[in-house]
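#data-curation
PF: Archiving a pair of folding outputs for the training set. Convention for this channel: one message per protein, sequence first, structure tokens after, nothing in between. First:
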Amino acid sequence: MSALERAGLALLHRVDPERAHGLALAALRAGLGPKGGPKTSPRLATTLAGLSLPNPLGLAAGFDKNAVALRGLAATPLGFAEVGAATPKPQPGNPRPRLFRLSEDRAAINRFGFNNEGMEAIAARLAARPKAIIGLNLGANKDSDDRAGDFARVLARCGAHVDFATVNVSSPNTEKLRELQGKDALTALLEGVIETRDWLERRIPVFLKIAPDLTDAELAEIAEVAGASGIDAIVATNTTLARDGLKSAFAGEKGGLSGRPLFAPSTRVLARLAGLTDLPLIGVGGVASAEDAYAKIRAGASAVQLYTALVYGGMALVGEILDGLETLLARDGFATVAEAVGTDRERWL
């Protein structure tokens, strides 16, 4: 990271976290982020659910909720990016403050509540997107009478303009949303989403994003439902409600915890899931270095996403992780990312 980038991050950390997030997004929109496009090489290039990725490192949903910085994201070294979550109707989300920076823990807590401008505005921006691998996180309106149906509605409106879609039933910030992870509810929800996907003019892969706070029995049930549903991959995991070992004064705030404390629990869920399903997995949670990304891959992930680490390392971190990941793969004799997937899963069981 350059001295200028370090100074910029230090300045952002002096303002309210949600305002700082808005400023970072504005800078990316203005073309002030990394240039040159996705980093790739024969060792980093990989596939995920039929998608040809230049590299396995993607941006998790939540950074660009309204798809306003697509050109800036396409210019970064990222292999893919996920925007949203999008809901059918615009909604303001939960009252502020709703984002907390836990610097001592290299973490964050958010309780945004799917704040976004709605699927119509987001679809219009996605329709004009640059060439890049872009996916959309599907959400449900807080006041909806048919939350399960909301996911299919957003997919029907936006699906033609994205390369993949993620069903997000694991956010802890919309009341009772996680109840949709139960067997019967999830089966019905995914049935509607897959039926909608199959009506799209162009077939796109559909992913399911799960919570880290699941028992082994719940995880096995989700794996069973996912395998029978026709979805293409599972994203493990969303933020956690756990607060173990935190040092920050904001540790007691309500919402989902992300960042460094989530790395180990989310990787354990990932490794367990890899033993329960043949579906490709995307590892998310606490990725802040090449070693973290490599550990996710060796635990069973075909691709990896990050977000909170950018709060502390800036977008320059993406290139650093990819350079380091290529070095680690070469060190251990892996010619491709795919060769390394799941090779150290037992460590996390």
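PF: Second:
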Amino acid sequence: MTRVYALANQKGGVGKTTTTINLAAYLGIAGKTVLIVDMDPQSNATSSLGFDKRSGQPSIYDSLVAGRPIDEVIVPTANERVSLLPSAIQLAGAEIELVGILAREGRLARTLSTVLDRYDYVLIDSPPSLGLLTINSLTAANGVLIPVQCEYLALEGLGQLVSTIELIRDSLNPRLRVAGVIMTMFDSRTNLSQGVVEEVRAHFPSLTFETIIPRNVRLGEAPSFGQAISTYDPTSRGAAAYQRLAAELLRRDGSQPVNC
């Protein structure tokens, strides 16, 4: 069964794209076939994997709005077993263009339906908002992975996100669930980071991943070279953390790495 996870948090700068790319890379290393879907008009996942978002190449916009076959849009990445459905700047206008389309909330789910059987995992990098693009991401997903930054006000907006997830589950996607909360940008030198982790775990005791993603310079550098951390610096603390996160997700899903 293909597992489709939307990575969502309407708060920006929480490590959502970083988590999408590096989790996908390590799932691929573990022997899983993965499709990254870049649903953010900022196209950060696309550019972080070494693709020019202004190149004019076909993008998810062409499939969502114009109905272009998804096979003409998906591209392989430098990461083994990982493919990308790239974004483009034009996606910013899709929120308006989709308004007049029948069953617009399920547009992405229908777009992906023809290729799901090719992948073990689909990771959807959704925009930092609760607009129509994020609703499409949640409607297409089986579960939601929520990156939460280890900083002040980390829980701000989480209640609204959880309410949106429940609303979409009740009205559009009954299989949707919160699959996990991922603590990111942890700074072991501060009491604040530890306090935030404890607070989040108190609110979501069974959902919060044991793996915590640290603040790591190498994680910030890797996108500028168009690489996942597994390629850019596989010995870094950030790489080790995302490798553990992928292994933990596989255990939660009742799966085991095929190739380590």
